[in-house]
């Protein structure tokens, strides 16, 4: 079975005025994109390094705070469970240590 290929229709030639207008339009668009804050910031290595460092610090802080909050809620929830003696006692001890630490501060 042979495949038939469609012949490409020749594109009509654009008038020189249209090409110049398109080129001006593209030049304006490239200038607008180059003046964008994202591009200006990434043109400087110290700015990129500072931005990524700050982003890493915020991500790390958020991860630690979020994990602490989730673990404290989980420990509190498990301390409320009395029908599982091992887990209930362990969670109660954790809750007591957290309360003691909060009272000390």
From TrEMBL:
The chain crosses the membrane at residues 57-78. It holds the Pfam family DUF5665. Keywords: Membrane, Transmembrane, Transmembrane helix. This is Uncharacterized protein. It comes from Roseovarius indicus. The lineage of its organism: Bacteria, Pseudomonadati, Pseudomonadota, Alphaproteobacteria, Rhodobacterales.
């Amino acid at each position: 079975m042979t495949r038939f290929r469609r012949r490409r229709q020749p594109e009509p030639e654009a008038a020189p005025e249209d090409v110049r207008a398109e080129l001006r339009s593209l030049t304006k668009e490239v200038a607008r994109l180059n003046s964008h804050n994202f591009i200006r910031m990434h043109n400087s290595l110290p700015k990129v390094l500072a931005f990524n460092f700050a982003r890493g610090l915020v991500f790390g802080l958020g991860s630690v705070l979020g994990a602490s909050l989730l673990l404290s809620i989980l420990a509190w929830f498990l301390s409320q469970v009395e029908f599982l003696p091992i887990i209930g006692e362990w969670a109660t001890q954790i809750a007591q240590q957290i309360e003691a630490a909060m009272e000390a501060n």
